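Re: that chain you flagged

S.,

Sorry for the slow reply, it's been a week of failed gels. I finally had a moment to sit down with the sequence you sent. For the record, here it is as I used it:
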Amino acid sequence: MRNHKMLKVLALSAIALMGSVPSHAGDTATNAPVRMTVTVQTLGENKRTPDVNDADVIVKQGNKRLPVTGWTAAQGDRAGLDLFILIDDSASAQLGLQLDDLRAFINEQPPTTSVGVGYMRNGTVQIAQNFTTDHSQAAKAVRLPIASSGAYGSPYLSAIDLMKRWPENSNRHEIVMVTDGIDRFRGGPRYRGLSFISPDVDSASRVAQRTGTVVHTIFTRGVGRMGNNFWEITNGQNGIAKLSEETGGQSYYVGTQNPVRFKPYLDDLQKTLDNQYVLEFKAEPGTKLGPQYVKLTTEVAGVELASADSVWVNAK
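Prediction finished late last night. Pasting the structure tokens below so you have them in one place:
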């Protein structure tokens, strides 16, 4: 009886000691592996992009630095890119002057890039050409817009529709939106000022960050009263600039008028596509599935890292 009691005491003591030892395995399990597309941009007059290694990349979630587990140049067998040219059907016929620049840009893409072409109308996307590596075929799908947005004219709802239909693969996902950014769908009283941004911008940004899609935007004038209204034009530009900024893309416009040519924009965009990396790191999840905000920096002189504001992380 005495030995039985002694064994029971020893067993309880062992259990207590085991409970007091911290478990590092549980901490590791809570770190979720994520990946995102990052553009290495040069600053100032530096025309050559310096080499950036994984040790040069600083990823922070709040005040905590996260471990970088992968930093791979989007070159060679990792150069795969799905690039979708998304044109607003409410754009004016003046866009016709830029179509040759768009076609040339498509034709100059490398063989590792699949190109799709579609038109934003009625809050959806009318696919003119599915993803293909036959760039001449994709270029032929570029046409004049019909100069009508339809009953549900929101470029942001159209972008969401496209991203939800995107085929799953390991390629980079990027969109070039050609639009004035004006949400013609939302009715009712509109705020007349220079700070209104359609709530659909936040929705599109959230979907883009969840799907890892980078959205580049090019401003072009639209049709109708809204397309000629200074407030609407400026707010539309703010909307597309916000969408690009939050998803790690570029946004191009010159004042409220159409540019003479798209070529300078597209040349700069090509430089962006040619200087991208796939970053992998472990993020700390929140209490529920959703975006976790991260900040990327580097100490390499003359370099800035462009990426989405957040990554989508599973719950704890």
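What I noticed first: Residues 78-274 form a domain with the Rossmann fold fold (CATH 3.40.50.410).

Talk soon,
D.
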